[in-house]
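STRUCTURE:
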């Protein structure tokens, strides 16, 4: 019987795509530049690749900060901005952006009281803690399993060992809801946790084999 729900934060509860676009736009304004169509798509492609490298241990978060925006600006043809400097500005704006995913509040309201809820994330602790508070979501959670505080990242065994121990639940009592096939679904499955893939882009392409696939958070109500 499911007693405990782990829920990813970015692009599951909070719309990272919207928040990142806002942070980019505001950051570029500081340099007298305007956000252009296609920049987010360029960022996403590079960012997703870098985070896959972090998850498989071939890149660190500090390493990402040093190269991410230089790669994006070079690929998009933006000149005159120092990447690591922009990284700090980007994070400042991202940290105060907390746009909910459609149906996220309704989902938390539905689950709250029926299950123990824990938020999971590989993002910076203070940033994610503040964003959940700003979005009025933190009140629903019994705890936050943020990799920076855990000392390990999804999808590592060490991360999930910590989560299960601190959630005080057995593996077969947990379902993990998340958008990342690598960090969330692959990590959860390899650890014996029931996984629910939130396919928010509607790709339908699952090379990992999630136990459950949803297109909308509202579908959770028919599952839990």
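SEQUENCE:
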């Amino acid at each position: 019987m499911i007693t405990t729900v782990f829920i990813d934060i970015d692009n599951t509860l909070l719309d990272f795509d919207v928040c990142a676009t806002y942070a980019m736009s505001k950051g570029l304004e500081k340099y007298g530049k305007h956000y252009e169509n296609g920049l987010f798509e360029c960022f996403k492609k590079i960012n997703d690749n870098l985070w896959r490298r972090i998850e498989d241990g071939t890149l660190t978060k500090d390493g990402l900060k040093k190269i991410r925006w230089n790669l994006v600006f070079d690929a998009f043809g933006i000149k005159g901005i120092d990447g690591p400097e922009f990284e700090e500005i980007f994070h400042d704006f991202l940290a105060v952006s907390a746009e909910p995913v459609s149906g996220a509040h309704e989902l938390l309201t539905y689950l709250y009281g029926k299950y123990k809820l824990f938020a999971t994330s590989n993002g910076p602790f203070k940033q994610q803690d503040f964003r959940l508070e700003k979005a009025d979501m933190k009140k629903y959670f019994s705890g936050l399993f943020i990799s920076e505080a855990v000392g390990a990242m999804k999808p590592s065994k060490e991360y999930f060992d910590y989560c299960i121990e601190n959630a005080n639940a057995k593996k077969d009592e947990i379902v993990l809801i998340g958008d990342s096939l690598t960090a969330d679904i692959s990590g959860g499955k390899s650890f014996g946790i029931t996984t629910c893939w939130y396919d928010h882009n509607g790709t339908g392409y699952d090379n990992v084999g999630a136990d459950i696939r949803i297109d909308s958070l509202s579908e959770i109500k028919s599952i839990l």
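REMARK: The longest strand covers residues 116-121.
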